[in-house]
Amino acid sequence: MKHHSIQLACAAMAATLAALPAFSHAGVRVCTFPGSPSTALDHSVAKAVFKTAGLDVSFVREAIGEGDDDGVSPKELHKVLAKHCDVIAGFPRSSVADGSDSKLRFSASYLRSGYVSVGLRDRRAQSDAPDIVAATYASPAQLIAVQQRDVELDLENTSESTVDAVANGRARRAIVWYPALVAYRGKHPQTRFVTASTRSAYADWSLVFAFAPEAAPLQKRIDRAIATMSADGRLATLTKDWALPADEKTAQTTPAYLDGPSRGAADAHIVRVDASTTADPAFSQAQVAHGKTLYASSCAKCHGPDLQGITAPALRGPSFAPASAKAHPIGAIFQYMASNMPADKPGKMRDQDYADIMAFLLHSNGYGASTAKLTADAARASTTPLAARTAQ
Ligand code: HEC
Whose CA is nearest to atom 25 of ligand 1? Predict the structure, then answer.
């Protein structure tokens, strides 16, 4: 598990970092993630950007370890930035994952890229392959793939073997981060692929430089260099092989969770109601406690132990439950959750368990418990808008 679990780990990171040492004659020390498909790009962009900023760079190898099965831990990155590097190049960020309370500083993005659906150009080879979708284990690709209906999954350990599953006919399609496909093509120029975007909020990632919190002056200088190179076209030239092809068609693979309450066009399906005409649904303290346990075992790994959002959106505070004009009815959120969550086993929990989790979500967003019990039917029928009543 290399690059992709690193993405998950990084997104979750909230590290406190030691002060940056003064730059030595070796210049600014740049680290990249081991095994990342974008390393070649990260190096060439770092060289050019730091040169534009008037700084020398040296690349530090092996500073970031391979990590264990859960990827590189925040603690390890903390150590790396304190000891071995001044900046981490090729740090992946996503709009969904940025809900985490990371204390790192980030530059502007130098590459925006997404997860794509990949097949073989040769149609005959494609139709011979079993109707299986390959994805990299514990990565955003897996989250996107599990939402697709009526497909069998082939979970692979690396992004390279995920592309390979399509190239060698183990799967008909694969969901991969586009730079992984670019890296694969570099090694296997004879294989012809077709790509299509996966329309998921979760598919959209950017590569940035990450700095320790104290490195504000360095980060500003790098941002100016990125802006300069973006204006004069040099950045586009450097990244052109890695950027998503512009003429790409949208795949018919829209994940079910795009129908969720919080994202764009999906909002149109949800009826808004006037807060003044509705009452809070009642729920008990015992349900909150039980819901909390269920949340910890089935939801926290994606939404965060404190509901703060990691690889999935926050489930407390105004980003989840905005003030009433924009709020979604509790019933809509309940129905969405009960049919789409947990994303790795959608709809598989008991109705009453979903109701208990709803009680926990309400309580976490500042609603008070009573002695009455919240049933799944009552939750489903509630037109009360969920609007956070806590500061967080
Ligand atoms: C494997 C990861 C994963 C797990 C586990 C998971 N979720 Fe999610 N959840 C997601 C993702 C990703 C989204 C965002 C979908 C989107 O809007 O694009 C989401 C969205 C949601 C939303 C809608 C939030 C919003 O603002 O759009 C709710 C509510 C939710 N999840 C509740 C839960 C609950 C409750 C559980 C546990 C029973 C759970 N989720 C488990 C990944 C997960």
Answer: 262
| Strand pairing class (87-94; 57-59) | unpaired
Check if 97 has its Cβ closer than 6 Å to any atom of ligand 1. no
User: Rounded CA gap, 300 and 309, in Å?
Assistant: 9
Q: Where are the beta strands (DSSP E) in 181-320?
A: 193-197, 204-211
Question: Who's near 301: CB < 8 A, 6+ residues apart?
Answer: 310
pTM of the predicted protein model: 0.52
Distance 96 CA to ligand 1 centre (A): 11
* Interval between CA 277 and ligand 1 midpoint (Å): 28
pLDDT tens by residue, 50-108? 999 999 888 887 667 654 444 566 667 777 777 888 999 988 877 665 434 467 788 99
Does residue 84 share a domain with residue 138? no
Q: For residue range 327-382, what is the model confidence (pLDDT) as tens digits? A: 788 888 898 898 888 988 888 899 999 999 999 999 999 898 988 899 998 898 88
Structure tokens at 332: 């809509």
Q: Which atom of ligand 1 is nearest to the CA of 345?
A: 5
Same domain, 176 and 133: yes
Find residue 87's DSSP bridge partners: 30, 211
In Å, how far from its chain's centre is CA 75?
Answer: 20
Split into its structural domains, the chain has a count of: 3
Ligand 1 pocket member 143 (CB < 6 A): yes
Whether 11 is in the pocket of ligand 1, judged by its Cβ within 6 Å, is: no
Could you tell me the CATH number of the domain that includes residue 96?
3.40.190.10
Helix or strand or coil: residue 238?
helix
Residue 125: domain span: 113-202
Give nearest CA residue, ligand 1 atom 12: 312
- Type of residue found at 279: A
Task: Write the pLDDT tens digit of every residue in 102-157.
Answer: 677 889 999 988 888 898 887 666 666 677 889 888 777 877 777 766 678 888 88
